[in-house]
Amino acid sequence: MNLLIRWALNALALWITVQLHVGLGMSRPGLGPLLVAALVLGLVNAVVRPVMILLTLPLTVITLGLFLLLVNALAIGVVAALTPLTVNGFWGAVLGALVLTVISALLTRLFRDDRSVVVSR
Q1: Given CA atoms 93, 99, 103, 105 in this order, what sign does their dihedral have?
Q2: N or C end of the chain, less CB within 10 A?
Q3: Tens-digit pLDDT profile for the chain (121 aa)?
Q4: How far apart are CA 74 and CA 40, in angstroms?
Q5: Whole-angstrom Cα distance, residue 75 to residue 51?
Q6: DSSP 8-state symbol, 115
Q7: What is the dihedral of CA 20, 23, 28, 33, to 10 degrees?
């Protein structure tokens, strides 16, 4: 069930980001293409992005983590190549990935399950 909730939150975050027109769009409107893009985004974040982070670790350390913005933009580019998601250039991918990350983090925090939090005394 947790996986379906995360998928729905990713779809909502992607929809909000697309509605803000910050460099990401959808070539085909509708819920179906949005859910497919959110699913592919989740798979890319789970499989491809960790490999990219590992391969670019020296650059990430040298830039104090700022290179992760480019890794996120590249992940968005991979998703755009596989789905109806459209990207308006490289900087559109960077800005879209940044906004998507912030919105996704806010939604995750807003809808987190407080029952799973263990407080040590």
Answers
A1: positive
A2: C
A3: 688 888 999 999 999 999 999 999 999 888 999 999 999 999 999 999 999 999 999 999 999 999 999 999 999 999 999 999 999 999 999 999 999 999 999 998 998 766 655 555 5
A4: 14
A5: 11
A6: G
A7: -80
DSSP state of 117: -
What are the b/e assignments for 72-85, b being 16+ CB within 10 Å? Answer: bbbbbbbbbeebbb
Q: Vertex 51, ends 74 and 16: CA angle to 5°?
A: 40
With H, G, I as helix, E, B as strand and everything else as coil, classify residue 25.
strand
- Paired tokens of 55: 């391969």
Name the E strands within 1-117: 24-26, 85-87
- Cβ atoms 45, 75 nearer than 8 A: yes
Residues in Cβ contact with 75 at an 8 Å cutoff, skipping those fewer than 6 apart: 41, 44, 45, 48, 49, 52, 97
